[in-house]
Amino acid sequence: MDTTKVALVGLGTVGTGVAHLLLDEADRLARHAGRRLSLAWVVVQDRDKPRDIHLPRSLLTDDLSQVTDDPEITAVVQLVGGLEPARTIMIRLLESGKDVVTANKALLAEHGPELFDHARQLGRSISFDAAVGGGIPIVTNISQCLSANQIESLHGILNGTCNFVISRMDGAGASYRDALAEAQRRGYAEADPTMDVDGSDAAQKLAILAHLAFGARVHWQDIPREGIDQLQTADLQFARELGYRIKLLAVAQLVAEELELHVAPQLVRHDSPLAEVRDAYNAVRVVGDAVGRVWFHGLGAGRMPTASAVVADLVDTVVGRAAITFRTLELWSQRPARVMPRDNAHVSSRYYLRFDVVDHPGVLAEITGILGRHKISIASVIQHETGESAEEIVSLVVMTHTTTDGAIRQAVGEINVLEAVQAPTRVLRVLD
Amino acid sequence: MDTTKVALVGLGTVGTGVAHLLLDEADRLARHAGRRLSLAWVVVQDRDKPRDIHLPRSLLTDDLSQVTDDPEITAVVQLVGGLEPARTIMIRLLESGKDVVTANKALLAEHGPELFDHARQLGRSISFDAAVGGGIPIVTNISQCLSANQIESLHGILNGTCNFVISRMDGAGASYRDALAEAQRRGYAEADPTMDVDGSDAAQKLAILAHLAFGARVHWQDIPREGIDQLQTADLQFARELGYRIKLLAVAQLVAEELELHVAPQLVRHDSPLAEVRDAYNAVRVVGDAVGRVWFHGLGAGRMPTASAVVADLVDTVVGRAAITFRTLELWSQRPARVMPRDNAHVSSRYYLRFDVVDHPGVLAEITGILGRHKISIASVIQHETGESAEEIVSLVVMTHTTTDGAIRQAVGEINVLEAVQAPTRVLRVLD
Question: B202 and B53, same structural domain?
Answer without folding.
Answer: no
